[in-house]
UniProtKB/TrEMBL annotation:
Keywords: Membrane, Phosphate transport, Transmembrane, Transmembrane helix, Transport
Record-annotated membrane-spanning stretches: 6-24, 45-64, 84-103, 115-135, 141-160, 181-201, 213-232, 253-271, 300-319, 339-360, 366-387, 394-416
Originating gene: pitA
This protein's name: Phosphate transporter
Compartment list: Membrane
GO CC aspect terms: membrane
Amino acid sequence: MDYSIIYLLTAVVLCFLMTWGVGANDLANVMSTTMGSKAVTVRQAMLIAIIFEFAGAFLGGTGVTETMRDGIINSSQLSGQPLILIEGMLGVLLACTIWMNLASYLGVPVSITNALVGSMVGFGTVVLGPHAIHWNQVSRIAISWVTSPMISGITAYILFTSIQQTIFVKSNPLTKAKLYIPIYLFLIGSILSFITVFKGLNHFNIHLNFKQNLAVTLATSIIITFVGMIIIKRIPEHHRIRRRERFIQVEKYFAVLMAMTACAMAFAHGSNDVALAVGPLSIIYSLVMSSPQVFDANNYPAWIILLGCVGVVTGLLMYGRKVIETVGSAITALTPSRAFAATLSAATTVVVATSTGIPVSATQTLVGAVLGVGLARGIGALNLIVIRNIFMSWILTLPAASILTILAYKLLHAFLG
């Protein structure tokens, strides 16, 4: 009896459950600054997550999916043993499902990137041995887990400090805000348009040269800037107000910037983490739907990405509250201006890394940016106990995912093999 379809259906169910955990944890972390700063309503935040998560996954996620499929283990050694590879990918999905949902239950933000890399290393080691692992690629990814939160944290520190010095400490912060907000809007537009133009157009077989790409990016950024300015001008102004009330008015401006930056962050998360999460399912699909001799993990249908997006959004809607509270308010108090500095810095880091095919962690990148904003206000503004717990969960993720995958594979191999 051919069990291929059963394997595929099992993988589909596990992939949905895993991406559900990704939504309750990873995507909840991404939206935490938006909701923690109260820049938008819950309904608006959910709408942003749905639209831009889907857009990011479909337009910008190919590179990191290829890295996960081909960059961690030498899967060509298993080309004649498709069942072992299927069992391994089922083990990866099961292990990551358990870990992501456990972390979501505990309210601790962990990274699906870390979990998947750890799982792939565990599977490759137990089946092929350590020599089959592409340790150079693993090291490159692991280094990015350290450098990406550091880079986003430093960027957020500098950005928020500059916002304080150029706007909030001035005698007329409203006037200064109107001067600098178009610059920030242009930066947001550049991030949103960069990955769409340089990577997304390939999905529609549209290939532009560098000058054309640059022209489209600039034009899109300018349009987004004008749209943002129109929205900001609709905010009612009160000319005779006290100094404290001027700060509140400035924060209203930054709430608009924060909402637009949340779009960029959700887009970046979809282009990186969602595409990464469906990697094991895409491998199983390719093995089941084609012969091992013509195995091509790059050829998989759009419904796999769609499944990942639906799972992620469902997880956020149903169980994202705990992680949102941890990152959005427990690490440090966030206002729209602070959240804007953190989210813009994190989105920039993730988009640049994704464009080079490096699967960085959106979770770690955003937490690093939030820490940077907190440090700009002094060490006393940070909840060190919460930070310690988050760091411990990051350290435990890779070995825990590896061990869970090894156990899951052995059970599946004993049952199926």
